[in-house]
Specification:
This protein has 14 helices and 2 strands. The chain has 388 residues and is mainly alpha-helical.
């Protein structure tokens, strides 16, 4: 009965949010945010070679075993899309706070509460689980030993937190001198890679891990400037420039062609982050702009818009807990002495639907329990203006 009431209450709130969507809202941004998280989740669940080593679960992707599949990562490595969308949303929130007299303190309080409350709950729950397990199971190795993948979403949270905090500075610089600012950032990224690969300074790679995401986030400001005025020709030119830049960089020995870590690669473009990720973001920005108008028209349909709104109300909860859902499924299979195929054989491909449905069922339960903290983080004190 309680679950039924909660479901009806959620449906009423969802219906109200759908009905209250203003005509000025860029629905495409919400769609891209939901799409990016969905691709990340499905990639981790269904496109990983899950294997128990005897001590821990590992989950490399099958790119090394499927010829030419690295090219798919030029579109399916969508963390960059989330940062572009984040640039749009964070700039809107900053300028709203600035105009409303709340300044950087008001902006940061709202954005950090929204981002960090679900993360704190996630860490607290896992800390409690670990404490109970250590007390109840003699010789318990700890999740960091047998399944560190559960915490892989946190690297993204740290990187995103970094660009959120910098937004008042980077958005102001963009407003005053957008081209000199992004050019200086791009030169700094190129310079760090040069120091890392040509001068042999590994620390420059970690500096670039911070800088590249700022550049990608900066592209979200350009999207905000040009989304409604950029025609398909200019958008295609942006995508073409991204393709040429990415192809040029990956032709060099320093940069592998895959945009995700791959078995057999000496290094990864994603961590430490290289200039190729900024080039990838430029390509994806162009694709985003090319598709904006037709997809935006499609999103005007209530039947299409409703699931986008629903997904955005729980998006951080889904992201934080999706690897926990996967671990639950792996734990059940291990208890049953069932091992998933460790290579992309025909049997592995045939099992892909299972690796979508089974973790999704677990994730539904986790979202039902923990999404309330995401909603609480988004709540605004009475009388305060609601940022995007």
């Amino acid at each position: 009965m309680g679950a039924g009431r909660a479901w009806r209450s959620w449906r009423r709130r969802l219906d109200a949010a759908v009905a209250a969507t203003p005509d000025t809202r860029d629905r495409y941004v919400d769609f891209l945010r939901a799409l990016a998280i969905a691709v990340v989740v499905l990639w981790h669940w269904a496109l990983s070679l899950l294997r128990w080593t005897g001590e821990r679960w590992v989950m490399p992707n099958p790119i090394h075993a499927v010829p030419g599949s690295w090219l798919a990562t030029w579109l399916l490595q969508v963390v960059t899309v989330f940062f572009i969308v984040g640039g749009y949303a964070n700039a809107a929130a900053w300028w709203s706070a600035h105009r409303g007299g709340r300044g950087w303190r008001g902006y940061l309080a709202a954005r950090l509460r929204r981002l960090l409350l679900p993360v704190v709950v996630f860490l607290a729950v896992w800390a409690a689980v670990e404490l109970v397990a250590h007390l109840a199971v003699p010789g318990y190795a700890g999740v960091l030993r047998y399944a560190p993948m559960v915490f892989t979403p946190l690297w993204f949270v740290v990187a995103y937190l970094w660009v959120v905090v910098l937004t008042p500075v980077t958005a102001t610089l963009h407003a005053r001198a957008r081209w000199p600012t992004v050019t200086a950032m791009a030169v700094a990224v190129a310079g760090c890679d040069l120091l890392r690969f040509a001068a042999g300074l590994p620390v420059a790679g970690w500096v670039n891990t911070a800088l590249v995401w700022v550049v990608v986030h900066q592209l979200g400001y350009f999207y905000r400037d040009a989304a409604r005025t950029t025609g398909p020709g200019r958008a295609a030119a942006v995508a073409g420039a991204g393709v040429l830049l990415l192809a040029g960089l990956t032709s060099l020995a320093a940069y592998p062609p895959s945009m995700v870590a791959t078995v057999g690669q000496e290094r990864s473009n994603i961590f430490p982050t290289t200039a190729t990720i900024a080039a990838l973001a430029l390509l994806q920005l162009g694709v985003i702009l090319v598709l904006r108008r037709p997809v935006s028209r499609w999103l005007r349909r209530p039947a299409v818009w409703r699931p986008v709104v629903a997904a955005n109300t729980v998006i951080l909860t889904v992201f934080l807990w999706h690897m926990t859902a996967l671990l639950v499924v792996l734990g059940v299979l291990r208890a049953l002495d069932v091992n998933p195929p460790a290579e992309p054989t025909a049997a592995w491909w045939a099992q892909r639907p299972f690796w979508v449905v089974a973790p999704a069922l677990v994730l539904v339960v986790l979202v039902a329990v923990f999404a309330r903290f995401e909603h609480l983080g988004r709540a605004r004190p009475a009388g305060r203006h609601r940022d995007r």
